[in-house]
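DM from R.C. (forwarded with permission)

"hey, sorry to bug you on a friday — could you get me a structure for this? deadline for the figure draft is monday and I only need the backbone to look sensible"
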Amino acid sequence: MNINPKEVALIGLGPAGVSAAVYLKRYGMIPVAYEKTIVGGKTNLTENIENYPGVEKVKGPAFGMALEKQLKDFDIAPVYDEVTELSLNEDGSFHLVTKKGQSHDYRYVILSQGLGEKPFPIEGEETFHKRGISRCAICDGRFYRGKDVAVVGAGNSAFEEAIYLASLCAHVTLIARRTTFRAQETVVASFKALPNTKILAPYEIVRAEGENTLSSLEVRNKDTGETEKLAVQGLFLYVGEVPNLSFLKIEGLTDEKGYLITDGRRETKQKNLFAIGDCRDTTLRQIVTAAGDGALAATSVHDTYQQSQYTK
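My reply, with the result:
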């Protein structure tokens, strides 16, 4: 097996992955960066980014384009392919396989795959998927201009996207299962201050209804058990996410929620396998923390490589 020890596989090119790629290149390493969709990841689905130090308020897609340009400036060419398998070789190196049939072995791997949507079964969801039910307000919000819509969720994403939808839609109802929210108080206050919004809490959706497209939701008050009809033409789901790690064939690396356990160097329980950004066990999942993760993991890889050269 002929492995170039300076090659580092990066899986995912959101802010964490781009940060790691840039730092690796600055250290003289060779980042081989895999991305299955688009550079920037879910930043491209964010309406506005306004809490990244030194960057004025910017649209998510514009931020994603800036990340892509930064890779180009550092002469890092993304490999647009989906990693379908990452397994461990007998010598401790990693075997990577992609959807397009490519395979390669690496001494070091950094996982920055981010999160995928958590399943949220609603009676009628299959019927109205893309015909009234969506998980992306930035992608589909324009189709509901001037209409009434609902958003399900209680975190920052739910409230932030509901605020965006309120700029397009006639009315936005946010449905939450509890009366306490995970979102920051300032974000909740901004939503409540809008003239065309309301919150239903504690409520849950019983079913989605309509003929060819969504026309209403049956919702239930969790305290009283009473149900009512909510006339909406769109429903946006922001009900949580799970790590995108189905390709990982190495066991014993995650916590009970499926997040990768890392140490202070961002190394997992498997030697030379690092995790950064949203897929790891962290208390805060923000662009700024993801970028810091990338820089730290790249530095850890470089230090490990340097130490291996000294001990030869």
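R.C.: lifesaver. The first helix runs from residue 15 to 26.
me: no worries. Residues 62 and 303 are 33 Å apart (CA to CA).
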